[in-house]
């Protein structure tokens, strides 16, 4: 009997399903990417402690985005322009204490979509929020001065290095004799009787 080869072409099959084709990678956030929408405080304090360790989540950030001591100034927002569409995997927030909502939105100015509302009730903890969406912009909003955040990390889905090569998964017996060629079948095989 003939043998058939079952081959998986990972670059088309798996990547189209979103399996195994990407892995999270930290997006480098820089001060020039920030628009301080409210003009209050310095939102670059959200990204000033990312350089250094291979994984910033292993650190305990010390600085935080302090807005105003006047609650009438809130909410305050800062927008990060990532320079082009990114496949955002997740955002990580370092919560330094207190309790008030911190809102994360994606989309674009004037057309935001809320994806996270974190009550910021922890103390010196990192919290992950899965996003899994494409966006060029990320907006961070402190609803009150009590929303204390020390650091913001953004992870994107990045292609795995190197092309995925087709590989043999399993050779199976298809029950077709080796001497049969598919070209021997008539053009309109639907008329064949059993």
Overall description:
This protein has 194 residues and is an all-beta fold. Helices cover 3% and strands 45% of the residues. The chain is built from 1 helix and 9 strands; from the N terminus they run βαββββββββ. The strands form 2 sheets. Strands 2, 3, 4, 5, 6, 7 and 8 form a 7-stranded antiparallel beta sheet that branches. The chain has a two-stranded antiparallel sheet with strand order 1-9. The two termini are 21 Å apart.
Shape: elongated
**How many angstroms does the end-to-end distance come to?**
21 Å
Largest sheet descriptor = 7 strands, antiparallel
Mean pLDDT: 79
Q: H/E series, N to C? A: EHEEEEEEEE
| Uncertain runs | 1-20
Number-wise, the strands total 9
Q: Structural class, please?
A: mainly beta
- How many helix segments? 1
Rg (CA only) = 26 Å
What is the strand and helix layout of this fold?
Elements: E1 3-8, H1 13-17, E2 22-26, E3 34-36, E4 76-97, E5 102-108, E6 111-118, E7 125-142, E8 148-159, E9 167-173
Antiparallel strand pairs: 1-9, 2-8, 3-4, 4-7, 4-8, 5-6, 5-7
Q: Which key features would you list for this structure?
A:
single chain, mainly beta, seven-stranded antiparallel sheet, 1 helix, 3% helix, elongated
């Amino acid at each position: 009997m003939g043998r058939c080869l079952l081959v998986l072409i990972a670059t088309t099959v798996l990547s189209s399903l979103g399996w195994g084709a990407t892995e999270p990678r930290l997006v480098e956030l820089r001060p020039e990417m920030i628009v301080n929408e409210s003009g209050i405080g310095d939102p670059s304090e959200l990204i000033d402690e990312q350089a250094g360790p291979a994984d910033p989540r292993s650190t305990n950030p010390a600085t935080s985005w302090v807005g105003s001591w006047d609650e009438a100034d809130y909410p305050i927002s800062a927008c990060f322009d990532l320079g082009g569409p990114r496949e955002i995997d997740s955002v990580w927030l370092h919560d330094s204490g207190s309790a008030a909502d911190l809102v994360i939105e994606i989309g674009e100015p004037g057309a935001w979509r809320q994806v996270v509302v974190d009550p910021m009730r922890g103390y010196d903890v990192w919290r992950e929020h899965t996003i899994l969406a494409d966006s060029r912009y990320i907006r961070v909003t402190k609803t009150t001065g009590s929303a204390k955040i020390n650091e913001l990390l953004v992870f994107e889905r990045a292609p795995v290095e190197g092309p995925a090569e087709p590989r043999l998964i399993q050779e199976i017996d298809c029950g077709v004799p080796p001497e049969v060629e598919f070209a021997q079948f008539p053009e309109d095989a639907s008329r064949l009787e059993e």
